[in-house]
Amino acid sequence: MHKLLSRCERVIEWLLALALAVMVLLVFGNVVLRYVFDSGIASAEEVSRLMFVWLVFLGAILATRQHAHLGVEMVQARLAPRWRRLCALLSHGLMLYVLVLFLQGSWQQTLIGLQTYSTVLGFPMALFSGAGLLCAVAMLLLLGLNLLRILLGHPQAHIPGNPDAAGGQDL
């Protein structure tokens, strides 16, 4: 399981790099074309916007995997281990609930987007909401796995505020 997650993480990192490179090239190229040649690439804005959306959602998956999302662990670090575990269970439950709502909304938007097309290139707008759909599923799996580990007392469970937490790569 750890190898599979690590490989998925590497693929996401490469996709992030690719999306960022495409964005930079398109936006920079469009700026140069506008100021130097008084023209531009009409599709550059649509493609760069699509890359940005995917960059954000793939980055959210990666941040979930590495426990890098913003969090306030000062309070949790001062709690007794039993209360810290309870706080982690509660927060995981709330995050899973919100992710289920996000998944439902992304699914509805994807269905709508299958019948709506972008202005210049004409690709289905579902490509935008598909990023949210993938993000919700991946984060549900990652958080569900960590919740299961917390419930079972697994040594690789990530409990925020634990002084002995391994940091990033324990999912």
Brief descriptors of the model:
171 residues, disordered C terminus, mainly alpha
What is the chain-wise order of helices and strands? HHHHH
Number of strands: 0
* CA(first)-CA(last) distance: 9 Å
Indicate how many domains the architecture comprises: 1
Low-confidence stretches: 166-171
Biggest beta-sheet profile: none
Rounded to an integer in angstroms, the radius of gyration calculated over CA atoms is 20 Å
Q: How much beta, percentage-wise?
A: under 5%
> Treating each run of at least 4 consecutive H or I residues as one helix, how many helices?
5
The helix/strand class is mainly alpha
**Helix content bin:** over 70%
Which geometry do the CA atoms define? elongated
- On the 0-100 scale, what is the average pLDDT? 89
Function: Part of the tripartite ATP-independent periplasmic (TRAP) transport system.
Subunit structure: The complex comprises the extracytoplasmic solute receptor protein and the two transmembrane proteins.
Membrane topology: Multi-pass membrane protein
Keywords: Cell inner membrane, Cell membrane, Membrane, Transmembrane, Transmembrane helix, Transport
What does the secondary structure layout of this molecule look like, with pairings?
Layout: H1 2-37, H2 44-65, H3 74-78, H4 81-113, H5 126-152
Subunit structure: The complex comprises the extracytoplasmic solute receptor protein and the two transmembrane proteins.
Transmembrane segments: 12-35, 47-65, 86-107, 127-148
Keywords: Cell inner membrane, Cell membrane, Membrane, Transmembrane, Transmembrane helix, Transport
